[in-house]
Amino acid sequence: MSMVAKFFMAAGGAAAGYVIVGLAAALGKLIVGAVLRFRFDEFVFFMIRVGRRAGQNKKGLSVGLCDPQPYISCNMLDTRYTKMRNLIYGTFSMAAALFFTETVWFQLYGTKIMPVNALTQAMAVVMAAYTLVLFIQLCINQKKKAGSGPAGIMRREYERCIAAVKAGWAPGGMQIQWASGTGNLSDNVVVKKYLLMCYYHFLDRGEYEGVKKIMDEFEKYVPEKWPHSELNILCEFVFYHVIIVPNEGKAKYYGKPFLEKLDGREDVNAKRVFAYWLFFLEGDKGAALQIAVEALKMVKSYRLEGCRAMEERLIEALIKKIEQTP
Fold first, then answer.
1. Which of 178, 204, 216, 232 has its CA 20 to 30 A from that of 72?
2. Alpha helices in the chain (DSSP H)
3. Which stretch of DSSP H or E encloses residue 246?
4. Separation between Cα atoms, residue 172 and residue 310, nearest integer Å
5. Is the Cβ–Cβ distance between 230 and 221 less than 8 Å?
6. How far apart are alpha carbons 124 and 128 in whole angstroms?
């Protein structure tokens, strides 16, 4: 067999091994999530996404394309988050991946059932390597979540709260444990996700002193260049400085990257903020009303079910303000 043929066989085996372990880990999460009564959120296979149908009175699953991802994942929501439930969830996923990996290795080198060639050897090596990566990742994540310090609190509280909000719980009705000293933490991604949940909590309750406290903390983590993945955070900076604590200078400072990232595919919260921007910053009543109405129609399909009532109130308040303005 030529070297070129061996190379392509090895590449195919490596790809197969990667897919097998990814599917095994996802299957493990799906099974243990069902046993523990988790709620299915989504399954991603590179650029194919299977998720729950969003919206009132909509049941079943939706299948569609998403932004290409270099992995296979399954996400289940646990609204009764505990350290033990989370550990079982992660461990069972790891165990499923390990079972498939050991089966391949046993058949390849133990029983000799599988032929030893470039394809099967590459597949076995990649499966073992990927499983090891999953094991290390599981250990690191569980160690971080188990901590009693601010970092551990934030990770646990974020996972619990985002699962509850996606399941339909209003953020204002949840209790969120405050993690003091977040400004000293280096894991910016986790901090920002946690702070966003705290922000929604106070915003939904109408407690603007709490909102101010969160935004003061949030500003310690403002990046030099905003990634598109953080549009949901950026838009709340704009909203805060447009309407909650009006500051035209800061509103325009955050508004510039916000407007650059709008592409027509944003969620209802970004649409809501854009409508407020058009009315209060640009004074364009017609455009503001059009975007606000569009946002209002999107509320019932918003992926964060618990935030739907809050978004609806904020959008309706703007529409009323626009209609009452001469």
1. 232
2. 3-35, 83-105, 118-146, 150-166, 188-205, 208-218, 231-239, 248-261, 268-280, 285-298, 308-324
3. none
4. 9
5. no
6. 6
The span from the CA of 215 to the CA of 221, in Å, is: 10
| Phi and psi, residue 60, nearest 5° | 95, -165
**Does the pTM of the predicted model rise above 0.85?**
no
Show the tokens assigned to 259.
């407007």
pLDDT single digits (tens) 176-201: 988 876 655 567 888 899 999 999 99
User: Tell me, what amino acid is at 69?
Assistant: Q
| DSSP secondary structure letter of residue 111 | S
According to DSSP, the residues that pair with 49 across neighbouring strands are: 44, 64
Q: Average per-residue pLDDT in the chain?
A: 90
In this structure, how many other beta carbons lie within 10 angstroms of the beta carbon of residue 157?
21
Among 43-52, 197-206, 234-243, which is the least confidently predicted range? 43-52
pLDDT digits (tens, 9 = 90+) for 263-281: 888 899 999 999 999 999 9
Above 70 in pLDDT, residue 304? Answer: yes
